[in-house]
Amino acid sequence: MLFPGNFRQKIILSGLHQPVNVPPKPTRERMMSDRVAYRLEDGVATITMNDGKVNVMSTGMLRDLGAAFDRAERDEAIIVLRSAREGIFSAGFDLKVFAANDPVGSLEMVKAGAEIAFRLMTYPFPTLGLMEGHAYPMGTFLLLACDVRLGAHGPFRMGLNEVAIGISPPGFAVELARSRLHPAWLSRTVTLGEMFEPHDSVVAGFLDRVVAADEIEQTVEATLAALKALHAPSHAIAKQRLRRSAMAAMREAIDAELTLEAYTSRSAARSAVVLPGARPASDVRAPMS
To answer: pTM of whole model > 0.90?
Structure first.
């Protein structure tokens, strides 16, 4: 018989009646950085973002996530990606970097984001993304790249709102979204910059399921039980076959668009980034003489 304990399990050997201590699988937890925490337990790597503010996808944050994904793959673990910040999954790319008109810095950040999304899209083990708050574009890209996307009911929004702030959505993100969203909703978010609350996000294809906030942990446990039951090699092969065309399109977009020459050319032709609360330059009229 198996007798669970708080810190150990005991097996009573038949005939010997001798209790033998069997230690449970260890839980390993570490801070990848001051922005990303990594916790491994029973084959599940929980990667938690917490920059103390709104989880801006700076180059540093993206590198930390990459290091966590590397660790999870070495551990052959299912990934759970979530935020520790109440009401926010991620505020997306750092708009101040775009507004600084620094093509090199902007390119570095966007390319890091593209590679992280591609990495998550191709990760060989199951992945689960949790939206428990707003997910602005780069945050949305990460959720779109997960195998299972769970959301909590709440006044939260997600989508690709770049055109509303003077940015064209990067090609890799359009191809990623194309692979998960229904066509009409894809057009609305890519070309009109619409953001959607959780219920509509399920209809659109951003999320797979939405539950009450107090049911998230229970739903995560049930989902993980199902993911653990999968045959891992078959899952990896099926993912590659299903996403082959999307991955090829994403890679082509990354290689073609995210070079300094191409990025600088587009930056020169693009209007200035409009930060929240600011007015576009085109809206500012010259004073009357």
So the answer is: no
